[in-house]
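Troubleshooting: if your tokenizer reports a length mismatch, compare your output against this known-good record of 234 residues.
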Amino acid sequence: MEQLAVIIVLSYLVGSIPTSIIYSKYFRGIDIRKYGSGNPGGTNVFRVLGWKPGVGVMIFDGLKGFIAVAIIARIYYDPVLAGGDLLIEEFTLVQIIAGASAILGHIWTVFAGFKGGKGIATAAGMLVGIAPVEFTVSMVVFSIVLVSSRFVSLGSISAAVAFPLTLFFRWNVFNAEIQDYFVLVYFSIGIAALLIYTHRSNIKRLIKGTENKLSSISLRSKSRKDMTKEPRTE
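Known-good structure output:
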């Protein structure tokens, strides 16, 4: 049990690393929380500072989830490190616990007053390490919705919903072999619900027709002089 507690704490701390805040403060001399939507996530960095910093922040946020499931989770599951006494036999469940801890760390980071990003990139990195097929389908759905609507938030929500649906159809319709299916499907429903919750303000703006489209996001890196503070929308 001690090993599992260590995994939860380590994964949470890794997930809590406030990538966007660190980058904006130390490399651009600003606090990203005071610009754009005010959200310390990759999309806001993309919007305020340009595509290169935005992509970099998103990749690092994704690595936080991947590290949790691919590296930190093995602290518990490794027979040597765990002392041969596993309370949870399914490695997938241990990975889920680690990944979920990283996502919670990203959303409620201890390093920034428990106010972080929305968890999409960290969840994506986690899913790459656990279910690459379902992740790929979700990314295809995200891309289609993003290109057709130009709403990043709508694409993210659609991708979150697509993941459990893909699991369901692969298992029940195509009879695919999926390790720890029931653990994964219930978890993915919970994660989808969490990500929809973190996008609740975006959903309200989508309904009102005031949500920012991708066309309003700069495709070039901006200097501090170029930036103007936008109204806080979150």
